[in-house]
Amino acid sequence: MAINWFKYSAPSTFYALAGKLAPWFAAFAAILFAVGLYIGLYVAPTDATQGDAYRIIYIHVPASILSMFIYLVMAGYAALGLIFNTRLSAMMANALAPTGALFTFIALWTGAFWGKPTWGAYWAWDARMTSELILLFLYLGFIALHASIDDPRRADRASALLAIVGSVNVPIIYYSVRWWNTIHQGATIKPTGVSMEATMQKALLAMFLACWAYAIAMTLWRVRSIILERERTTQWVQEMPEAK
Amino acid sequence: MSFSEFIDMHDRGFYVWSAYGTTLLIFVVEIALVVHKRKLTLKQIRMMRDAEGEQ
Lengths: 244, 55
What we know:
The complex is a heterodimer.
Chain A: H1 11-43, H2 57-84, H3 87-119, H4 127-148, H5 152-166, H6 169-179, E1 189-190, E2 193-194, H7 198-230, H8 235-238
Antiparallel strand pairs in A: 1-2
Helix pairs in contact in A: 1-7, 2-3, 2-5, 2-7, 3-4, 3-5, 3-7, 4-5, 4-6
Chain B: H1 3-8, H2 13-54
């Protein structure tokens, strides 16, 4: 039986779908976090050169990858909303922004605590770190711009433009370690493979999937509130059992 | 490995636990904000409906 995916582009049908999916993603996230943390912090061996400080990698790398990926997905939804004027796309972009901003902050924060014992400094105006900081400002700018305009549809259009223009920063972050001489190490996960010991790879994979599932769960739960807020005058919201 | 050795992380415990502790705090705050936002939105819908019912 073919699934009519367009059915879920309507906020009312997507609201129900998001409500069903979010707890599953949250449960997957909890299990994978437990597995990833156990392997990463307890089972995986100590790194030969960095000692145990390297264990920050299990949250730093997934958070960094997700900070960039969520931004691209957010910009993609914003562009869809701008081009096709679809209501749910803008709502999804708004739901993704806070989680993306938090993952960017986590990437910067955990990077600082990894940098101090390995480089001797919490922060350096290095190309990778500076471009990641710009990503945080882009997320905050997107959220602030949307919140500053009263008309939601106008706010969607204005913030969509910012998201689309800002997406040029993502390849800059990714390739910064190749384009410039930076103190930041090169990519751990490359198309040619992962330069890590097998147990470390397992922990990193579990933590990456956990962060992924967590981000999806949070976005789905957040978009449900956004849908309710923006569709509050419609009949289906008024007749919803939760609102009675 | 004893528990104190695990916490100490060969003298790198402060950096490792600060990184993971802050992440946990951020996740807890985000979950609390999402739950709070949902409660607030449902409350606003109920208030709006009640106000319309009185008119």
